Amino acid sequence: MSTAGTIMSDSEQSAETLARWFWCGVIFSLLGLQILMSSVAVFLSSSDPSNVIVEGYYEQALSWDQQRQTQADSDALGWKSAVTCGSPEGLQAVRKLQITLQDRAGLPVAECLVKGQLFHHARAGEVFQIRFTETGPGLYAAAIPMQRSGLWELSLVASNPTGTFQEKKKILVKAL
Predict the structure, then answer these.
(1) Rounded distance between C-alpha atoms, residue 110 and residue 113, angstroms
(2) All structural domains of the chain with their residue ranges
(3) The domain 57-173 is classified under which CATH number: 1.20.1070.10, 1.10.3430.10, 2.60.40.10, 1.20.1260.10?
(4) Mean pLDDT across the stretch 18-24?
(5) d(Cα 38, Cα 46) in Å, to the nearest integer?
(6) Number of other CB atoms surrounding residue 134 within 10 Å
(7) Sheet containing 163-173, strands listed edge to edge, beginning at the edge strand earlier in sequence
(8) Are 161 and 140 in contact (CB under 8 A)?
(9) pLDDT tens for each residue of 93-139
């Protein structure tokens, strides 16, 4: 039995070694590129403020009937609200947000605790918690740093001994 193998010259052996290094490098480069692209995708998806995970979404879905009853009770009050947004003031573009509340007869609804949540549709992860102060009978105001123009959404809750009123309003802020 012969154990003779192929005899290669030095130039052939160095060419084969070079080819092995090249193809191993190609494989590891492609794997590295895949890891880099995956890392960039994870970073972009987790740092984008326009994406938001709604807290308690499952619990909200389970309490759907209760939410509908709360909204029906609010609608039964017959209250109406109007929102006005002032022009920006100062370096932080603080705007005066004013709410007018009226009952079914058109009379002002006074002595309410008025709270709200406000967010811009392009940045749903940046939610402003607002507590309005009464500036007159049925008039409630708050100063909000609304720097972005565009569509904002306000979830309003007003309560007094008569009942609790809730409503969602859309506010369009125009660019100056």
Answers:
(1) 9
(2) 10-47, 57-173
(3) 2.60.40.10
(4) 93
(5) 12
(6) 16
(7) 80-85, 94-102, 139-145, 123-136, 113-120, 150-160, 163-173
(8) no
(9) 789 999 999 999 999 999 999 999 999 988 888 889 999 999 999 99
Distance CA 158, CA 166 (A): 6
User: What pLDDT, in 10s, does the model give residues 24-48?
Assistant: 999 999 999 999 999 999 998 888 7
Indicate the pTM of the whole model.
0.70
pLDDT reported for residue 44: 86
User: How far is 12 from 151, CA to CA, in rounded Å?
Assistant: 70
Question: In sequence order, what DSSP letters do the residues of 32-56 get, joined into one string?
Answer: HHHHHHHHHHHHHHHH-TT--PPTT
Q: Which amino acid is at 31?
A: L
Distance, CA of 145 to CA of 97 (rounded, Å):
10
